[in-house]
Amino acid sequence: VVDKVRRTSKLAHLAGPSYPLPLLGHLKDMFGPRATFLDRCNAFLQRWGPEPVKFWVGETPSVSLTRPEDLEPLLSSQREVFKPDQMYKAVSGFFGDGLITLNGDQWFAHRRALTPAFHFKVLERYAGIFTRRAAALAEQLSSEVPAGQSFNIVRPLGAFVIGSIMETAFGIDAATDESHRSDTMDRLVRATEDAFFIVMHRIFHPWLLIDFVFKLTPHGRVARDHEDIICDMTRRVIAAKKAQLKQGAKDAAADQDDVKGAVDDDDGVRKKFTFLDMALGDKSLVLSDKEIIEEVRTLIAVQQTTASTLSFIAVMLALNPEVQERARAEVREVDAVEGLLPLDRLKRLKYVERVIKETLRLFPVTAAFGRKLKSEVKLPTQTIPAGVVINMFVYRTHRDPRHWPEPERFDPDRFLPEQCAGRHPYAYVPFSAGPRNCIGQRYAMLQMLAVVSAWLARFRLLPGDGCESREALRVNMDIFLCIEGGANVRLEPLEA
Ligand code: HEM
Question: Where, by residue number, does heme bind (predicted)?
């Protein structure tokens, strides 16, 4: 009790509710239907912000930050901060113990091992894969979804992004590999969707963060089944890669001109540059087999960020027909240029890129992320004591009216270079920033450019059920932002 009084008094200077309840803290303020969690977070910060806001999650003192100038000191340094168990423990069953959740030296070793797989030289080579796969996805949607029928676009996107990471970072051939069979993929996508629900359930019921208690509950048993599905997929991926490397070694021995495992495939991707080729084929990497498995799990799980963002882009295009037509005109103009390499083509899609950025401003799918303070941190107007868990709620940062006039208006031209000039560098952080920023940022942007341009070239997107207007959208936070009831759109084939 004395310790709690001491810790409470250290936060006394901050805005926010007082009198935390024993064991619950202010969790009761957050209780309510799961489907409106985002609304409650917004209402809470609307009431107490925009200054740093204190609150207690159970017995843990927490502070929520939304202003760019408050985010900067925390994101730009990682000496004083680490990922808090309270938030990240619940997600590690899903994300694996990989880059997302690791801290300290272990994180640094993993980050160093993964960085070459996301080097821009390697990504340049992925552009061909993204373009080919995006065209196939657009064809599949055109042929499988009856014109004019409302459907939830997230599902096919979930399988699509996992297929992409298999082919790019793991170098697993989509056409031949067992792990790409559609029933395996369906089980994985469904397990992922359920996992989001279960993770949120644990965060809402903090006593379920005690592993042995959670494992005894029905959700704990479902979570174990899902982990089995995800681990099974990971094992298949690694087994397929090992077999491929063995075959590559045999082929190289048979053909002295070939460099082991370094052949270019049809898309010009040097196979030895994929993460798994480097991790399993090159012993100079420091990751153990167990660590490689955890990173494969992480890379599979994080793909849902791209799937979710693409689903928001589809809905925004459907709700903003002039923006959609302008983006389509750009795609047609670029596609009229003959002989462009895939990467050059994607780089020319400047307006489509602005559409993606503006969607990520309004709907940063990783809407909140956390840190725990090792020592006291000075923010521009406040000092936050050591031991506090920080929640950076970028959903509101991206709506800060000082940087985003009429914040709810969808306007891709906010990202014209002249409009970006002078804007606070931390006013827009959908991929976080600083040393723990998203390693897959450029990968995700290239993939999204390929997918959106393939859609625009083949069909018109129209609003689907429940997504008829911005006001009708029921946006929520389930680890990642999502639309309750589905990201529903309709497709209309383009006249020839
Ligand atoms: C639109 C898509 C994406 C968004 C919005 C996004 C956003 C983010 C954010 C906000 C973080 C920081 C999270 C935190 O601090 O807890 C992060 C970290 C990370 N992301 Fe992404 N991400 C996306 C796509 C991807 C993709 C495609 C990959 C992999 C191919 C990826 C891999 C990672 C990894 C490994 C980390 C942890 C980095 C570290 O801590 O060193 N992300 N991402």
Answer: 438
